[in-house]
């Protein structure tokens, strides 16, 4: 077997650049140093006066989390891929022989960021950077939610009832701490209805996990706000928490799940114009003028489905962790990673003219 020649690595990286390395474009277009202050304040590392190995650079570790979010890679797989892929090493600013973060280091870094509101501040920091780059929220906002699957739990009826009553895993399995640590008592079951084709009835699909609620702007399709709940949480209950007021247009689009008297009054109080789908009258056919209005709204509202498709199919968004706090961290990082990918796409298109 031929030995790897270190002198040929620069040539190999040069060819990767010529082929259009997406990570090189990401590191060039996104200013990751802009996150350093937020990271430093949120992590609050010791000053090193007590000795011990110094922590990895926080910007490098944040890049690791973005890579993991864009590729839906576990921490163990990340440890391997960082060592294996030269393009990933270049993106992280690492060279062969450098110390590289292992799976436990990556996990602990994410855990530390998820404490408090550091991840939310990182999300807001990048949103401000988008506005400075000329991508301020425009054209109104679209609100929607999508289910994010999590590992299904196998529980007895008594255990299910205890979870519904709000008991913790420690109280349900007091004598089995290892089992309790592997049981997710925050995720929930829900039923998603798929429209039947050719006159067939709608299909009920049971789903288990969490729900990602987002707001995107109509003009640029960036995620501008988001929240994570268990899968059974009603979509409309989150509208007042995630809708924003700093869009250049006051229009708000959403499906019929968000239409309620309380939400309509809230939007009116905020000076926002409701373009929420109207519901079908109970026991009556849908009036034609309402159906036409809903169809017009759907042509605009469908933009958010492209965002979810990018996250769930190309980025492979799913939850492998235990508990809603870790699920929030995973989905928030996925939202930041999506916005970065979208930003790179728009900037490259702008450069072409």
Topology, element by element:
Layout (H helix, E strand, L loop, with lengths): L8 H10 L3 H8 L6 H8 L14 H14 L3 H10 L1 H7 L10 H12 L3 H15 L8 E9 L7 H8 L4 H4 L4 H5 L6 E7 L8 E15 L5 E8 L8 H4 L8 E4 L6 H9 L3 E4 L11 H14 L1 H12 L9 H29 L1
Parallel strand pairs: 1-5, 5-6
Antiparallel strand pairs: 1-3, 2-3, 3-4
Q: How does the overall form come out from the CA principal axes?
A: globular
Note the main sheet. 6 strands, mixed
Which residues sit in consecutive blocks of at least 5 with pLDDT less than 50?
none
Number of strands: 6
Residue share in helix: 40-55%
Instruction: Specify Rg, calculated over alpha carbons.
Output: 23 Å
CATH C-level of the largest domain: Alpha Beta
| H and E string | HHHHHHHHEHHHEEEHEHEHHH
Task: Decide which structural class fits the backbone.
Answer: alpha/beta
Keywords:
single chain; 353 residues; alpha/beta; Nucleotidyltransferase, domain 5; 16 helices; 48% helix; globular
Summarize the structure.
This protein is an alpha/beta fold.
Protein model, in words:
By secondary structure, this protein is an alpha/beta fold. Helices cover 48% and strands 13% of the residues. The chain folds into two domains: 6-115, no CATH class; 122-150 and 187-352, Nucleotidyltransferase, domain 5 (2-Layer Sandwich). It has 16 helices and six strands. Strands 1, 2, 3, 4, 5 and 6 form a six-stranded mixed beta sheet that branches.
């Amino acid at each position: 077997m031929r030995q790897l020649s270190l002198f040929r690595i620069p040539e190999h990286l040069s060819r990767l650049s010529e082929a259009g390395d997406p990570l090189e474009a990401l590191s060039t277009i996104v200013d990751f140093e802009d996150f350093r202050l937020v990271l430093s304040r949120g992590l609050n590392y010791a000053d090193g006066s007590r000795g011990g190995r110094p922590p990895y650079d926080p910007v490098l570790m944040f890049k690791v989390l973005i890579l993991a979010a864009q590729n839906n890679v576990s921490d163990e797989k990340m440890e391997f891929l960082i060592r294996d892929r030269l393009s990933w090493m270049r993106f992280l600013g690492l060279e062969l022989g450098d110390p590289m973060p292992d799976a436990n280091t990556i996990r602990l870094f994410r855990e530390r960021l998820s404490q408090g509101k550091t991840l939310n501040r990182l999300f807001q920091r990048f949103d401000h950077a988008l506005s400075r780059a000329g991508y301020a929220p425009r054209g109104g906002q679209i609100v929607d939610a999508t289910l994010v699957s999590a590992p299904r739990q196998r529980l007895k009826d008594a255990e299910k009832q205890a979870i519904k009553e709000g008991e913790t895993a420690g109280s349900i399995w007091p004598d089995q701490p290892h089992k309790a640590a592997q049981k997710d008592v925050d995720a929930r079951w829900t039923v998603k209805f798929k429209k039947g084709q050719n006159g067939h009835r709608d299909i009920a699909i049971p789903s288990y996990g969490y729900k990602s609620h987002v707001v995107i702007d109509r003009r640029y399709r960036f995620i501008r706000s988001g929240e994570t709940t268990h899968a059974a949480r009603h979509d409309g209950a989150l509208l007042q928490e995630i809708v924003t007021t700093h869009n250049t247009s006051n229009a708000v689009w959403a499906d019929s799940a968000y239409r309620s008297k309380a939400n309509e009054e809230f939007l009116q109080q905020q000076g926002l114009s409701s373009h929420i789908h109207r519901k079908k009258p109970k026991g009556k056919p849908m009036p034609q003028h309402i159906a036409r209005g809903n169809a017009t709204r759907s042509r605009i509202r469908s933009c958010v489905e492209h965002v979810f498709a990018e996250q769930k199919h190309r980025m492979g968004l799913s939850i492998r962790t235990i508990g809603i706090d870790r699920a929030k961290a995973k989905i928030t990082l996925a939202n930041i990673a999506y916005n970065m990918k979208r930003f790179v796409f728009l900037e490259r298109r702008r450069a072409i003219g």
